[in-house]
Amino acid sequence: MKRWIAFSIVISLLFLEGCTVYKITQKKAYKNEIVHAELNYDYQQLKEDLFKLQESYPGKLQVDTIGTSIEGRELYVARMGTGPKKLVVIGGVHAREWMTTYLLMSLIELYLKHDQEGKKLKGYPVRQLLETVSVSFIPMVNPDGVDLVLNGIGDRDRKLLIRMNEGEENFSRWKANIAGVDLNRQFPADWEATDSKEAPSFENYKGMRPLDQPESEAIARFTLGEQPEMTIAYHLSGSVIFWYYNQKDEHYKRDLKIGKKVGRITGYKLIEEEDSDDIAAGYKDWFVKVFERSGYTIEIGEQRYDQIDVDAIDRFIGENQAVIPYLMKVISKAKK
Predict the structure, then answer these.
(1) Is residue 171 part of a domain?
(2) What phi and psi values does residue 66 have, to the nearest 5 degrees?
(3) Domain of life here (predicted)?
(4) Which of 39, 83, 125, 184 could form a disulfide with 132 if both were Cys (CB 3.0 to 4.6 A apart)?
């Protein structure tokens, strides 16, 4: 009997210990005071959070617009830092990848907090880096598409959209902008030779000509005006990093070295050059080809877009929080 009681006590303690560990692992790792989503992260929440952040961190964040979407939604840019060197970070390019917008907004708040408090983030002095490098975040390049995915057809042309969606009434897979153009096949880097569907579609149609969509044109115009030292485009999914677009010699060595470090920071796989497209018309491809500077596409999450929900944000923040400070450090040390 005594042995049974002792055994029962041990089992109970182990159970309680297991519950304690479970609660610890379930605890939120990053407590954003402003940026927080319950079910998804749409354009309206983006807009509200941007202006709340600007108000909460006076002088630390400047919110502007670089243009409007087809349906008239603002393409917001959030600027941090006072440094003369520049980094541009974009997300929400593909409609179904709205999680990248939520990640960028979460990182903006994280950096603002460390800047204001003068704290280091994973060993990186955020405030000092922002005195050397200015960062421009464009968290949602495709607000119309995101709205379709998250909020449905609304008063849009139902028949047209279902036709572009190949008969499907579920728009969760929609990747293009509202006109059925893939905004990451729009840039003038081998555009003519880039694969494409023949007509507007929920995915993989490159348009009639490069930059013929207001969203892609605005991004290109903004980038040309900024002349950034580096760009990052966040996408989903695969937990991989694309860096190569026909670079050679010193540019190849430079971009590979940086890419390997980003891979170590995130735990994501660096895509080998032989596995990269030689012909493409994506934002990163265009930037690398035209500017001859470092550009990266970071794909978060191993799972598909329809298998990832907002609860994954802590993990994505943990994997990516040091990427931008690291790249700022690289930029700050680079010679013009």
Answers:
(1) no
(2) -110, 5
(3) Bacteria
(4) 83
What's the total number of domains in the chain? 1
Cβ(124)–Cβ(322) under 8 Å?
yes
Q: Is the dihedral of CA 208, 99, 219, 224 positive or negative?
A: negative
Expressed as residue numbers, the domain containing 123 is 43-149+182-333
Distance CA 91, CA 215 (A): 12
The β-bridge relationship of strands 240-242 and 294-300 is antiparallel
Helix (H) or strand (E) holding 328: helix 323-333
In a domain, 328, yes or no: yes
* Residues sharing a CB contact under 8 Å with residue 64, sequence separation 6 or more, in sequence order: 76, 77, 79
Q: Which two tokens stand for residue 153?
A: 């057809």
pLDDT digits (tens, 9 = 90+) for 11-55: 444 433 343 332 333 345 578 899 999 999 999 999 999 999 999
List active site positions: 299
Write down the pLDDT at residue 336. Answer: 63
CATH of the domain at 129: 3.40.630.10
Q: What is the pTM assigned to this prediction?
A: 0.91
**In one letter, which amino acid is 137?**
F
> Tens digits of per-residue pLDDT, 193-237?
999 999 999 999 999 999 999 999 999 999 999 999 999 999 999
- C-alpha to C-alpha distance for 126 and 82, rounded to whole angstroms: 12
Sheet with 294-300: list strands edge to edge.
Answer: 61-68, 74-80, 133-138, 85-90, 230-236, 294-300, 240-242, 269-270
AA identity, residue 13: L
